[in-house]
Specification:
Strand 1 and strand 2 form a beta hairpin. By secondary structure, this protein is mainly α. The protein contains eleven helices and two strands, in the order ββααααααααααα. Helix 2 packs antiparallel against helix 3, helix 8 packs parallel to helix 10 and helix 9 crosses helix 10. It is 72% helix and 3% strand. Strands 1-2 form a two-stranded antiparallel sheet. The chain folds into two domains: 129 residues, Up-down Bundle (Four Helix Bundle (Hemerythrin (Met), subunit A)); 104 residues, no CATH class.
């Protein structure tokens, strides 16, 4: 992808450098993530409900999506310098057009990755549906997991008001569930505990339900970060 903009020199962050060179790092990250996702995709064809492979594919696609967004932002950030370069002759019309094509190509790649992420979410929801009865037992509070996730796993969870903070005993109970289910320690545990607190105040649920959801999704699918919070929030929002 970077070959289109080879030879274009602009000022980025106070330094004058080749645009292709400036994007080489993020381009490598995108290539590595998409290659890993493709490797998972090939194996998933042989085992469509393998939760480990689905989780890995989702993680790599999410990484590629984030890096592609970063690349697009970087490309668009030099708009003024490219316009000025075209006026003063430091950038040729051919180079300017190539830069514009690179933006279009990156936008198209972003749309493709976004669609792949949504499709992977649907596959994860199908796997969760099969394990619905197992997850439903956690805390005895999550109902309709299969049907609810099938309908809502690819849709953003609507923010419908913050719930009041529960008693400290309930908070501790929710955090204890995460630690017990995942065996996590240190920063990893701190991160998941933070998710429990966020979920319990962002959606109408209690800390125990949020803790059970975070612990179950992390243990079953190995998800972390935004992917873990997203699916855990969708599980917690199904509380009746």
């Amino acid at each position: 992808m970077a070959d289109r903009i080879k030879g274009i020199t602009v000022e980025i962050g106070g330094d004058t450098t080749g645009l292709s060179k400036a994007l080489s790092g993020v381009n490598k990250e995108i290539r590595d993530s998409t290659k890993s996702a493709s490797g998972c995709k090939s194996l998933i064809k042989l085992d469509p409900t393998n939760s480990e492979l689905l989780a890995q594919k989702q993680k790599y696609l999410a990484s590629a999506l984030g890096d592609t967004k970063e690349k697009l932002t970087e490309l668009k950030s030099v708009q003024d310098r490219m316009d000025e370069g075209l006026k003063n002759g430091s950038v040729t019309q051919k180079q300017y057009d190539a830069w514009k094509r690179e933006i279009v190509a990156t936008e198209q790649e972003l749309k493709k990755l976004d669609e792949q992420c949504k499709n992977t979410d649907s596959s994860v929801s199908a796997t969760l549906k099969q394990a619905g009865s197992k997850i439903q037992e956690v805390g005895g509070k999550i109902s309709g997991v299969g049907e609810g996730l099938t309908k809502g796993v690819t849709a953003p969870v609507m923010a419908i008001g913050a719930a009041s903070l529960a008693a400290f005993g309930e908070v501790d109970s929710g955090l204890d569930i995460v630690e017990a289910k995942t065996g996590a320690t240190g920063k990893s545990l701190e991160s998941m505990n933070g998710m429990v607190k966020e979920l319990a105040t962002e959606i109408p649920t209690d800390f125990e339900t949020a803790g059970s959801a975070v612990g179950e999704v992390n243990t079953r699918f190995g998800l972390t970060g935004d992917a873990l919070k997203k699916l855990s929030g969708q599980l917690s929002s199904l509380q009746r």
